[in-house]
Structure formats: structure tokens, C-alpha cells
Design a protein that fits this description.
The protein is of the alpha+beta class. It has a domain of about 60 residues: OB fold (Dihydrolipoamide Acetyltransferase, E2P). A hairpin with a 4-residue loop joins β2 and β3. The longest helix is centred in the N-terminal third of the chain and has 25 residues. It starts with a helix and ends with a strand. The relative contact order is 0.17.
Length: about 100
């Protein structure tokens, strides 16, 4: 038997589900607020891959960034101005 079954104050499944939903919602809000705070700021981005002249990479804070360029930026760290939020990532331009 799992030790959790022996605990006296088990949380009801519906309460656990509600708390989990609240935490997910809070995490999404905090993530968006953080990305919003980065708009118009510069960041170093490690470029990882390219698709249709759009390179994607990560900042040192693990924010996914898209940057348009026809140059080979693979595995380079470049300075980017973060322009806007696009879903779960941001778009930027090379500085």
C-alpha cells in the first residue's frame, strides 16, 4: 500500500484538481507577464534552428525567440531586440 493512503488528511480529488488548475493558470499568467516585461529590451539568444528564413533560439532565461534572417546563425549567440509576444514565444530583430 502506498504511504499516501495512510495519511489522515488526504486532499479530495476534486480539490486537488481545482488547485492544479489554479496553479496552471497562475503559471501561464506569470510567464506572459515576464515575457511582456522583456518587450523592447535586448537579449542574448542562442540560435538553434531555421525554418523558412526564421531562426529560433533561447535567451538565457529560456524564452523562445524567433528572428528573421537569411544568414547562417546556427549555434551562434546573437544580440536581439525583443519586439512582441507570439503565443508562448517572442519575436525579435537582430541588433
Amino acid at each position: 500500500m502506498a504511504k499516501s493512503k495512510l495519511l489522515i488528511n488526504n486532499v479530495k480529488p476534486e480539490t486537488a484538481k481545482k488547485r492544479s488548475e489554479l496553479l496552471r493558470t497562475l503559471a501561464q499568467k506569470k510567464s506572459k507577464d515576464f515575457r511582456r516585461s522583456l518587450i523592447n529590451k535586448g537579449a542574448s539568444v542562442l540560435i538553434e534552428q531555421k525554418k523558412n528564413d526564421i531562426w529560433t533560439g533561447l535567451t538565457d532565461n529560456y524564452v523562445r525567440v524567433e528572428v528573421p534572417s537569411s544568414k547562417d546563425l546556427s549555434n551562434k549567440i546573437i544580440k536581439v531586440k525583443l519586439n512582441e509576444i507570439k503565443g508562448q514565444h517572442m519575436s525579435g530583430t537582430i541588433i
